[in-house]
Amino acid sequence: MSAKRTERLLTLVMLLLSTRQGWTKEDLFREIEQYEQAPTPAAREKLFDRDKATLREQGIPLESFTEDPLFDNDNASIRYRINADDYRLPGMSFTAAESAALTIAAGMWEEASLGAAASRALRKLQGRGVGTETVSPSPINARIQTNEPFWDALWQATTGRRVVRFGYRAASTGEERERRVQPWGMGSRFGHWYLVGFDLDREAERWFRLTRMTTPPATLRGTYSVPAGFSMSTSLATLKAENPNRRATVAIRTGTCQLLRARPGARSTLHGDGWDILTFPYSNEATAAGVIASFGSNAEALSPEPLVAEVRRLLTGAARALRDTPPSFFLEGNYTAQPASRPTASTEDRVLRLLDLVPYLLNNPGVEVAEAARAFSITPAQLIKDVELLFVSGPRFYPDGLIDIELDDGRIYISDPQSLGDPIRFGLDEVCALLVGLDTLINLPGLPDHSAVRSAREKLRAGAGEAGGMNDSIATRITEDEVAPVLAAVRAGIEQRRQLHLRYVVPARDEVTERFVEPLSAFLHEDAWYLDAWCHSAGGRRNFRLDRIQRVELTELPSTQKAETPSVIFDRSVADHKVVLILNPSVQWIAQSYAAERTAKTDDGRLVAEISVGTTAWLPGLVASLGGECSVASPQKEREHALSFIDAALTVRAPRTAT
What pTM was computed for the model? Predict the structure, then answer.
């Protein structure tokens, strides 16, 4: 990240905004010292051409024109400027309710690839009257995830209208082939992101799940147009879950395997001798086999044969991994999950940040360095460098053209912003992030009044200009019909301060429980919704997965508990068992989900993770379901217990037919 280049680009923007008459190249070369210092005229021209391209790529409306049409091909007569009306974000006003909706919408991207764009858009709107100080945390905490492979590259190709080529493994055949696609849009549903576009080889519209892409997408030459009227939101609504076109037959011990019994379409028949025969529909062999394997000797797959073989493969692989001698390792440090691929900080990023910083400082006179640094997600030291760079940027021969900025006793004051006092118009990523967040908020169940969200969306689309139309290129759907009624009841309980009566499946104990809870919040974690509540049965705060709630009833009993701390998926304070796991690359998400305390890498690329848990009852089932991708290194008794659990599953012989 070159400070000199950043200063040059910032000065160029200031000059091009300063007059409607524009500047010739020669004028700009004289005013900007770094152009004049170029070693040759050709180098100077190349530098200027690159800077023009950079500004345009960042959405800055740099235009060239000539006042004499007889000499429109004469480079010496061409003038350059930035039209202030096209550069500045239009004036917009929002009510308190609309401001709250926009703030919540931006927060949905906090952990995702468009998170920085959403934050930047919100900062711009703060200069147009959007306040975040009084926004209360939402009881329904939704987060959009973009941690699947190649998300950033495919989004850039989609918004840039670039053809891409990638390897893809078909779901139906498992065959891997190269695909060439014109991306039309990207959408998330059923826990996965999809690319929708025109398949050039098959000459038809196709869907591609990102997790099935086997090679990074390569951008090809050429551009294209998206069909008129295409809407990713509409297209996403037509996507169906995998059709459960097969039916499993499983022998299960009476009174066990509650999650299997609760599956949609499951039917059980009492056999006798302590066994039931259960049938249920399924679509994915590997997923169904993993669930069956997790119940150990309490379940045996009977048919169809491919499912039976897959369950045995998983159990055999898990047993083999547990019998293998654990690799040598040395645990150290805290585990930090690798974030989704993001572009590294660049000169372009810093220029945009500086253009945002000036109106921010103007609207927050005397703001403390630390507070401003938090607003821009940078360190205080970097913020001071940014302020110092603003101070020296500007034309060489016009001292009055410099920004008047002062750093005094840890506070920043700006009195003359020159031409940079207004926020720049929304970029494509920014407006898409906010609009998709608002659309997602509208689709959350149980929201009694959508009017503020809808009006905020319409105002935003109107103020975003052409960029607002690109919202049709991306959509998410984070709740499905199965969980929506439960989520709506949870929201009602939170907002009305009333207790809920739950019928809940506890997988670790393989039992169905009845309990009264005081709902505190609901949150989305890795595509599963959870209820954070005070449980009267447990006498403490607990999380409940919404898809494991078999029945929910809104009672007349009042809720008195309040959430003193944010919701967390894993509470280490109640975890008193330490377990060391060996994780193959495909399951290293376990380290993040269980907040691994120490980790190590083996020579063959596996991850060793030490986790703390409240109970280890679920551990053998997890190891069995993953077929050797996850193993237990220590304690030895847990390793032996898991192996005994899986050996029992491999030797169980349940009845074959119902009587």
Answer: 0.77
